[in-house]
Amino acid sequence: MHVSYGALLVGALGLVYGLVGRQLSKRQVTIGAFVLLVAALALVVVPYFMGVPW
């Protein structure tokens, strides 16, 4: 997957997550935040290790 498509996907997930965050429990909010953080970091780290510079 190209980096920009991944960024759009993570951005869309963050937007949806932000809109429904009030309806979730505190545990679900915490887990979702960490999942989004890991996905965003993966967008930077994976291409770096594959030798694709920004």
Describe this structure in words.
The mean pLDDT is 83. This protein is mostly helical and 54 residues long. It has one domain (3-50). It has helices at residues 3-20, 26-49. The chain crosses the membrane at residues 6-24, 31-50. Keywords: Membrane, Transmembrane, Transmembrane helix.
Entry keywords:
54 residues; mainly alpha; 2 helices; membrane
Give a short overview.
This protein has about 55 residues and is mainly α. It is built from 2 helices and no strands.
- Number of discrete domains: 1
Q: Ranges with pLDDT <50 over ≥5 residues?
A: none
Mean pLDDT across the residues is: 83
Tally of DSSP β-strands = 0
Radius of gyration: 13 Å
Helix content: over 70%
> β content, as a range?
under 5%
Amino-to-carboxy terminus distance:
15 Å
What would you call the quaternary organization? single chain
The helix tally amounts to: 2
SSE topology string = HH
Largest sheet: number of strands, sense, barrel closure? none
> Rough shape?
elongated
Give the helix/strand class.
mainly alpha
